[in-house]
Amino acid sequence: MWTWAVEKAGQIPWNKTQLIKRPWPSLQHLENATIADFLYNFSCYTPKASDNHRGTSKEFPANECLIRDLDQTRLSIFVPIADLGYFAWNPSGSYKDLAHVTATEITEKIDKDRVPTPVVSIDALNKKLPEEFATLPPQKYRNKFPYSPPYISALHVAVQYRGLDTETVDFYFGGSTLEMLANATIPKGSRYLVCVIPTTKILLVYKYKEYVSNFSDPGYQFERFVLGRSFEDKHDKQTFEHLQLMLVGDYNVLFSANVDGADADGGDPVEIKSSSPRYWGTKTMFQMLSSGSLSLIAGFKRKGSMMSVRKMHLSDVIDEALSGTYAGVLEEKLKVHMEALKEEVNAGTFDEGKVFEISFDHQGKINLDPCDYLKTDRIFTPEDVVEDLLI
Questions:
Q1: Could you tell me the residue range of the domain that residue 12 belongs to?
Q2: Higher pLDDT, 208 or 245
Q3: pTM of this prediction?
Q4: Measured between alpha carbons, how far is 109 from 195 in angstroms, rounded to an integer?
Q5: 285 domain residue, yes or no
Q6: Which has the closest alpha carbon to 317: 351, 292, 364, 280?
Protein backbone atom coordinates (compact mmCIF):
# COMPACT_ATOMS: atom_id res chain seq x y z
CA MET A 1 0.00 0.00 0.00
CA TRP A 2 2.75 2.46 0.97
CA THR A 3 4.82 1.56 -2.11
CA TRP A 4 1.77 2.13 -4.31
CA ALA A 5 1.19 5.53 -2.72
CA VAL A 6 4.79 6.56 -3.32
CA GLU A 7 4.57 5.49 -6.97
CA LYS A 8 1.31 7.37 -7.49
CA ALA A 9 2.75 10.46 -5.80
CA GLY A 10 5.51 10.56 -8.36
CA GLN A 11 2.85 10.84 -11.08
CA ILE A 12 1.07 13.84 -9.59
CA PRO A 13 1.39 16.94 -11.81
CA TRP A 14 2.69 19.24 -9.06
CA ASN A 15 2.58 22.38 -11.11
CA LYS A 16 -0.99 21.81 -12.31
CA THR A 17 -3.11 21.68 -9.19
CA GLN A 18 -4.01 23.51 -6.04
CA LEU A 19 -5.29 20.29 -4.46
CA ILE A 20 -1.78 19.36 -3.32
CA LYS A 21 -0.73 21.65 -0.54
CA ARG A 22 3.01 20.98 -0.26
CA PRO A 23 4.87 19.17 -3.06
CA TRP A 24 7.66 16.95 -1.78
CA PRO A 25 11.15 17.97 -2.89
CA SER A 26 11.85 14.46 -4.18
CA LEU A 27 10.67 10.86 -4.03
CA GLN A 28 13.48 10.18 -1.56
CA HIS A 29 11.66 12.37 0.94
CA LEU A 30 8.53 10.27 0.38
CA GLU A 31 10.33 7.03 1.08
CA ASN A 32 11.63 8.39 4.40
CA ALA A 33 8.40 10.10 5.42
CA THR A 34 6.05 8.99 8.14
CA ILE A 35 2.40 8.14 7.58
CA ALA A 36 1.47 11.41 9.29
CA ASP A 37 3.70 13.35 6.90
CA PHE A 38 2.10 11.59 3.94
CA LEU A 39 -1.45 12.31 5.06
CA TYR A 40 -0.66 15.95 5.79
CA ASN A 41 1.04 16.68 2.51
CA PHE A 42 -1.34 14.72 0.29
CA SER A 43 -4.68 15.64 1.77
CA CYS A 44 -6.97 17.84 -0.31
CA TYR A 45 -7.53 21.29 1.07
CA THR A 46 -9.74 24.27 0.44
CA PRO A 47 -7.94 27.33 -0.97
CA LYS A 48 -8.04 30.18 1.51
CA ALA A 49 -7.79 33.91 0.99
CA SER A 50 -4.22 33.91 2.32
CA ASP A 51 -2.93 31.38 -0.22
CA ASN A 52 -0.68 32.58 -3.01
CA HIS A 53 -2.34 30.83 -5.93
CA ARG A 54 -0.26 29.87 -8.90
CA GLY A 55 -0.48 32.40 -11.70
CA THR A 56 -2.42 35.11 -9.88
CA SER A 57 -1.79 37.94 -7.48
CA LYS A 58 -2.50 37.40 -3.78
CA GLU A 59 -4.85 40.38 -4.07
CA PHE A 60 -7.41 38.16 -5.81
CA PRO A 61 -8.09 35.09 -3.66
CA ALA A 62 -10.77 32.53 -4.35
CA ASN A 63 -14.32 33.38 -3.30
CA GLU A 64 -14.74 31.48 -0.04
CA CYS A 65 -18.53 31.60 -0.29
CA LEU A 66 -18.32 29.87 -3.66
CA ILE A 67 -16.02 27.25 -2.14
CA ARG A 68 -18.49 26.60 0.69
CA ASP A 69 -21.43 26.36 -1.70
CA LEU A 70 -19.63 23.83 -3.87
CA ASP A 71 -18.70 21.80 -0.79
CA GLN A 72 -22.43 21.31 -0.14
CA THR A 73 -23.05 19.72 -3.54
CA ARG A 74 -22.26 16.44 -5.30
CA LEU A 75 -19.81 18.14 -7.64
CA SER A 76 -16.19 17.35 -6.85
CA ILE A 77 -13.87 18.54 -9.66
CA PHE A 78 -14.41 22.29 -9.39
CA VAL A 79 -11.92 24.13 -7.17
CA PRO A 80 -11.96 27.95 -7.22
CA ILE A 81 -8.45 29.40 -7.38
CA ALA A 82 -8.91 33.15 -7.82
CA ASP A 83 -11.78 35.60 -8.15
CA LEU A 84 -10.50 38.16 -10.67
CA GLY A 85 -13.42 40.55 -10.35
CA TYR A 86 -15.51 42.44 -12.88
CA PHE A 87 -15.07 44.76 -15.76
CA ALA A 88 -17.63 46.80 -17.70
CA TRP A 89 -17.85 47.00 -21.48
CA ASN A 90 -19.14 50.30 -22.89
CA PRO A 91 -20.03 49.91 -26.58
CA SER A 92 -19.95 52.87 -28.94
CA GLY A 93 -19.54 53.41 -32.65
CA SER A 94 -20.43 51.34 -35.70
CA TYR A 95 -20.20 47.59 -36.24
CA LYS A 96 -16.74 46.48 -37.22
CA ASP A 97 -14.94 43.24 -38.09
CA LEU A 98 -12.40 42.22 -35.45
CA ALA A 99 -9.71 41.98 -38.10
CA HIS A 100 -9.81 45.79 -38.33
CA VAL A 101 -10.13 46.63 -34.63
CA THR A 102 -7.19 48.33 -32.90
CA ALA A 103 -5.95 47.89 -29.33
CA THR A 104 -7.08 51.43 -28.50
CA GLU A 105 -10.61 50.75 -29.74
CA ILE A 106 -10.78 47.85 -27.28
CA THR A 107 -9.19 49.45 -24.22
CA GLU A 108 -11.26 52.64 -24.51
CA LYS A 109 -14.43 50.59 -24.07
CA ILE A 110 -13.21 48.79 -20.92
CA ASP A 111 -13.95 50.14 -17.45
CA LYS A 112 -11.91 47.89 -15.15
CA ASP A 113 -13.21 49.50 -11.94
CA ARG A 114 -16.95 49.48 -12.49
CA VAL A 115 -19.14 46.81 -10.88
CA PRO A 116 -22.66 45.59 -11.78
CA THR A 117 -25.82 47.18 -10.42
CA PRO A 118 -27.02 45.55 -7.16
CA VAL A 119 -30.25 43.56 -7.36
CA VAL A 120 -33.31 44.70 -5.42
CA SER A 121 -34.44 42.61 -2.46
CA ILE A 122 -36.97 39.84 -3.08
CA ASP A 123 -39.50 41.37 -0.70
CA ALA A 124 -39.34 44.74 -2.45
CA LEU A 125 -39.74 43.13 -5.87
CA ASN A 126 -42.72 40.99 -4.87
CA LYS A 127 -44.52 44.03 -3.43
CA LYS A 128 -44.66 45.44 -6.99
CA LEU A 129 -46.04 42.26 -8.53
CA PRO A 130 -47.96 41.09 -10.42
CA GLU A 131 -47.23 43.47 -13.28
CA GLU A 132 -47.90 43.19 -16.99
CA PHE A 133 -44.95 43.31 -19.38
CA ALA A 134 -44.71 46.45 -21.50
CA THR A 135 -45.20 46.62 -25.26
CA LEU A 136 -42.12 48.47 -26.50
CA PRO A 137 -40.54 49.41 -29.82
CA PRO A 138 -37.62 47.13 -30.75
CA GLN A 139 -34.18 47.72 -29.23
CA LYS A 140 -32.10 45.42 -31.42
CA TYR A 141 -28.34 44.91 -31.46
CA ARG A 142 -26.16 42.29 -33.16
CA ASN A 143 -23.60 40.36 -31.11
CA LYS A 144 -20.76 41.94 -33.04
CA PHE A 145 -18.08 44.44 -32.08
CA PRO A 146 -18.55 46.95 -30.52
CA TYR A 147 -21.81 45.67 -28.98
CA SER A 148 -20.25 42.35 -28.00
CA PRO A 149 -16.88 42.44 -26.19
CA PRO A 150 -14.18 40.38 -27.93
CA TYR A 151 -12.73 37.60 -25.81
CA ILE A 152 -9.35 39.30 -25.77
CA SER A 153 -10.85 42.13 -23.68
CA ALA A 154 -11.34 39.81 -20.68
CA LEU A 155 -7.89 38.31 -21.04
CA HIS A 156 -6.42 41.81 -21.25
CA VAL A 157 -8.08 42.80 -17.96
CA ALA A 158 -7.02 39.56 -16.26
CA VAL A 159 -3.37 39.91 -17.33
CA GLN A 160 -2.82 43.64 -17.07
CA TYR A 161 -4.88 44.44 -13.97
CA ARG A 162 -5.51 41.20 -12.05
CA GLY A 163 -2.06 39.60 -12.07
CA LEU A 164 -2.87 36.58 -14.25
CA ASP A 165 0.09 34.72 -15.77
CA THR A 166 -1.03 33.23 -19.10
CA GLU A 167 1.55 30.45 -18.73
CA THR A 168 -0.53 29.01 -15.90
CA VAL A 169 -3.83 28.86 -17.83
CA ASP A 170 -4.80 25.79 -19.85
CA PHE A 171 -8.28 26.75 -21.08
CA TYR A 172 -10.44 29.81 -21.58
CA PHE A 173 -14.19 29.12 -21.35
CA GLY A 174 -17.24 31.30 -21.78
CA GLY A 175 -20.54 30.86 -19.98
CA SER A 176 -21.89 27.88 -21.95
CA THR A 177 -18.79 25.72 -22.56
CA LEU A 178 -19.14 23.50 -19.47
CA GLU A 179 -22.68 22.52 -20.46
CA MET A 180 -21.57 21.57 -23.97
CA LEU A 181 -18.56 19.48 -22.89
CA ALA A 182 -20.26 17.77 -19.95
CA ASN A 183 -23.34 16.73 -21.91
CA ALA A 184 -21.56 16.12 -25.24
CA THR A 185 -24.26 18.01 -27.11
CA ILE A 186 -24.26 21.06 -29.38
CA PRO A 187 -27.42 23.20 -29.13
CA LYS A 188 -29.33 23.61 -32.36
CA GLY A 189 -28.10 26.61 -34.32
CA SER A 190 -24.87 26.90 -32.33
CA ARG A 191 -21.31 26.00 -33.18
CA TYR A 192 -18.38 25.59 -30.83
CA LEU A 193 -14.97 26.47 -32.19
CA VAL A 194 -11.62 25.82 -30.61
CA CYS A 195 -8.22 27.40 -31.22
CA VAL A 196 -5.12 28.54 -29.37
CA ILE A 197 -5.16 32.21 -28.42
CA PRO A 198 -2.43 34.03 -30.37
CA THR A 199 0.80 34.72 -28.39
CA THR A 200 -0.28 32.20 -25.67
CA LYS A 201 -0.72 28.47 -25.15
CA ILE A 202 -4.27 28.90 -23.86
CA LEU A 203 -6.94 26.87 -25.64
CA LEU A 204 -10.09 28.88 -26.25
CA VAL A 205 -13.37 26.99 -26.57
CA TYR A 206 -15.69 29.52 -28.13
CA LYS A 207 -19.42 29.55 -28.89
CA TYR A 208 -19.70 30.99 -32.38
CA LYS A 209 -23.20 32.17 -33.16
CA GLU A 210 -24.39 35.33 -34.83
CA TYR A 211 -27.67 36.61 -33.46
CA VAL A 212 -29.67 39.75 -32.70
CA SER A 213 -30.78 40.65 -29.18
CA ASN A 214 -33.97 42.64 -28.70
CA PHE A 215 -33.76 44.46 -25.37
CA SER A 216 -37.52 45.06 -25.49
CA ASP A 217 -38.22 41.36 -24.95
CA PRO A 218 -39.80 40.32 -21.60
CA GLY A 219 -36.59 38.63 -20.40
CA TYR A 220 -34.68 41.90 -20.63
CA GLN A 221 -37.60 43.80 -19.10
CA PHE A 222 -37.40 41.46 -16.13
CA GLU A 223 -33.65 42.07 -15.77
CA ARG A 224 -34.28 45.82 -15.61
CA PHE A 225 -37.01 45.28 -13.03
CA VAL A 226 -34.74 43.20 -10.76
CA LEU A 227 -32.08 45.92 -10.98
CA GLY A 228 -34.49 48.59 -9.74
CA ARG A 229 -35.78 49.96 -13.01
CA SER A 230 -39.10 49.58 -14.82
CA PHE A 231 -40.25 47.32 -17.63
CA GLU A 232 -40.63 50.39 -19.85
CA ASP A 233 -37.08 51.72 -19.41
CA LYS A 234 -34.62 51.71 -22.26
CA HIS A 235 -32.00 49.01 -21.78
CA ASP A 236 -28.49 50.03 -20.82
CA LYS A 237 -26.10 48.81 -23.54
CA GLN A 238 -23.28 48.59 -20.98
CA THR A 239 -22.53 44.97 -20.05
CA PHE A 240 -20.46 43.33 -17.33
CA GLU A 241 -18.15 40.34 -17.34
CA HIS A 242 -16.95 38.42 -14.31
CA LEU A 243 -13.55 36.73 -14.37
CA GLN A 244 -12.41 33.78 -12.30
CA LEU A 245 -9.70 31.14 -12.39
CA MET A 246 -10.82 27.66 -11.44
CA LEU A 247 -9.26 24.23 -11.34
CA VAL A 248 -11.53 21.89 -13.32
CA GLY A 249 -10.27 18.35 -13.03
CA ASP A 250 -6.56 18.62 -13.80
CA TYR A 251 -6.61 21.93 -15.67
CA ASN A 252 -6.68 25.61 -14.83
CA VAL A 253 -9.56 27.31 -16.60
CA LEU A 254 -10.08 31.05 -17.00
CA PHE A 255 -13.79 31.81 -17.10
CA SER A 256 -15.21 35.01 -18.50
CA ALA A 257 -18.99 35.17 -18.36
CA ASN A 258 -21.64 37.84 -18.69
CA VAL A 259 -23.19 38.88 -15.38
CA ASP A 260 -26.73 40.23 -14.97
CA GLY A 261 -26.32 41.93 -11.60
CA ALA A 262 -24.61 41.77 -8.21
CA ASP A 263 -25.68 40.86 -4.71
CA ALA A 264 -26.46 43.98 -2.68
CA ASP A 265 -24.57 42.70 0.38
CA GLY A 266 -21.43 40.90 -0.78
CA GLY A 267 -21.21 42.12 -4.36
CA ASP A 268 -21.15 38.55 -5.71
CA PRO A 269 -22.50 37.84 -9.22
CA VAL A 270 -26.23 37.14 -9.51
CA GLU A 271 -27.98 35.25 -12.31
CA ILE A 272 -31.42 36.51 -13.39
CA LYS A 273 -33.86 34.13 -15.11
CA SER A 274 -37.45 34.54 -16.24
CA SER A 275 -37.70 31.17 -17.99
CA SER A 276 -39.39 28.20 -16.34
CA PRO A 277 -37.09 26.01 -14.20
CA ARG A 278 -38.45 22.94 -16.01
CA TYR A 279 -36.33 23.99 -19.01
CA TRP A 280 -33.11 24.72 -17.12
CA GLY A 281 -31.66 21.23 -17.05
CA THR A 282 -27.98 21.51 -16.18
CA LYS A 283 -27.50 24.59 -18.37
CA THR A 284 -28.30 27.15 -15.67
CA MET A 285 -26.17 25.31 -13.12
CA PHE A 286 -23.14 25.40 -15.43
CA GLN A 287 -23.80 29.05 -16.32
CA MET A 288 -23.72 29.95 -12.65
CA LEU A 289 -20.53 27.97 -12.10
CA SER A 290 -18.92 29.76 -15.04
CA SER A 291 -19.90 33.24 -13.90
CA GLY A 292 -19.29 32.55 -10.20
CA SER A 293 -22.91 33.45 -9.39
CA LEU A 294 -23.85 32.46 -5.86
CA SER A 295 -27.55 33.17 -6.26
CA LEU A 296 -30.29 33.30 -8.86
CA ILE A 297 -33.37 35.52 -9.05
CA ALA A 298 -36.11 33.52 -10.73
CA GLY A 299 -39.26 35.12 -12.10
CA PHE A 300 -42.54 33.31 -12.68
CA LYS A 301 -44.66 34.48 -15.63
CA ARG A 302 -48.27 33.89 -16.56
CA LYS A 303 -50.30 35.29 -19.47
CA GLY A 304 -47.99 38.18 -20.27
CA SER A 305 -47.38 39.24 -16.67
CA MET A 306 -44.65 38.70 -14.10
CA MET A 307 -46.40 37.15 -11.12
CA SER A 308 -43.69 36.65 -8.47
CA VAL A 309 -39.98 36.17 -7.89
CA ARG A 310 -37.87 33.99 -5.63
CA LYS A 311 -34.19 33.68 -4.79
CA MET A 312 -32.26 30.42 -5.10
CA HIS A 313 -28.75 29.68 -3.91
CA LEU A 314 -26.18 28.04 -6.19
CA SER A 315 -26.15 24.86 -4.12
CA ASP A 316 -29.95 24.55 -4.49
CA VAL A 317 -29.78 25.10 -8.26
CA ILE A 318 -27.10 22.40 -8.50
CA ASP A 319 -29.10 19.95 -6.37
CA GLU A 320 -32.21 20.41 -8.51
CA ALA A 321 -30.24 20.13 -11.74
CA LEU A 322 -28.58 16.90 -10.62
CA SER A 323 -31.71 15.23 -9.29
CA GLY A 324 -31.98 12.01 -11.26
CA THR A 325 -28.59 12.67 -12.83
CA TYR A 326 -25.25 11.18 -11.86
CA ALA A 327 -22.90 14.07 -11.11
CA GLY A 328 -19.91 11.78 -11.51
CA VAL A 329 -20.92 10.88 -15.08
CA LEU A 330 -21.12 14.53 -16.11
CA GLU A 331 -17.81 15.33 -14.46
CA GLU A 332 -16.10 12.35 -16.05
CA LYS A 333 -17.31 13.38 -19.52
CA LEU A 334 -16.03 16.88 -18.91
CA LYS A 335 -12.62 15.62 -17.80
CA VAL A 336 -12.31 13.23 -20.74
CA HIS A 337 -13.17 15.90 -23.30
CA MET A 338 -10.80 18.44 -21.75
CA GLU A 339 -8.02 15.85 -21.74
CA ALA A 340 -8.68 15.05 -25.40
CA LEU A 341 -8.48 18.73 -26.34
CA LYS A 342 -5.28 19.21 -24.35
CA GLU A 343 -3.68 16.25 -26.11
CA GLU A 344 -4.42 17.95 -29.45
CA VAL A 345 -2.68 21.09 -28.22
CA ASN A 346 0.41 19.10 -27.28
CA ALA A 347 0.34 17.37 -30.67
CA GLY A 348 0.49 20.73 -32.48
CA THR A 349 -2.98 20.40 -33.99
CA PHE A 350 -3.76 24.07 -33.43
CA ASP A 351 -0.45 25.45 -34.70
CA GLU A 352 -0.42 28.30 -37.24
CA GLY A 353 -3.73 29.71 -36.06
CA LYS A 354 -5.82 26.73 -37.12
CA VAL A 355 -9.43 26.68 -35.98
CA PHE A 356 -11.56 23.57 -35.51
CA GLU A 357 -15.24 22.98 -34.91
CA ILE A 358 -16.29 20.61 -32.13
CA SER A 359 -18.71 17.79 -32.81
CA PHE A 360 -19.64 14.56 -31.04
CA ASP A 361 -20.24 11.13 -32.51
CA HIS A 362 -23.17 8.88 -31.55
CA GLN A 363 -21.17 7.53 -28.61
CA GLY A 364 -20.43 11.00 -27.27
CA LYS A 365 -16.78 11.04 -28.34
CA ILE A 366 -15.43 14.49 -29.17
CA ASN A 367 -14.29 15.21 -32.73
CA LEU A 368 -12.47 18.18 -34.24
CA ASP A 369 -13.54 19.20 -37.74
CA PRO A 370 -11.23 21.58 -39.66
CA CYS A 371 -12.51 25.11 -40.25
CA ASP A 372 -10.22 26.17 -43.07
CA TYR A 373 -12.65 28.93 -43.99
CA LEU A 374 -12.38 30.55 -40.55
CA LYS A 375 -9.15 31.95 -39.12
CA THR A 376 -8.58 33.38 -35.66
CA ASP A 377 -8.87 36.96 -36.91
CA ARG A 378 -12.64 36.37 -36.97
CA ILE A 379 -12.51 35.69 -33.24
CA PHE A 380 -9.58 37.87 -32.20
CA THR A 381 -7.98 41.01 -33.39
CA PRO A 382 -4.72 40.54 -35.34
CA GLU A 383 -1.82 38.97 -33.47
CA ASP A 384 0.12 42.23 -33.13
CA VAL A 385 -2.91 43.84 -31.44
CA VAL A 386 -3.30 40.83 -29.12
CA GLU A 387 0.37 41.17 -28.23
CA ASP A 388 -0.11 44.86 -27.42
CA LEU A 389 -3.02 43.98 -25.10
CA LEU A 390 -1.27 41.16 -23.24
CA ILE A 391 2.34 42.30 -22.94
A1: 2-42
A2: 245
A3: 0.85
A4: 25
A5: yes
A6: 280
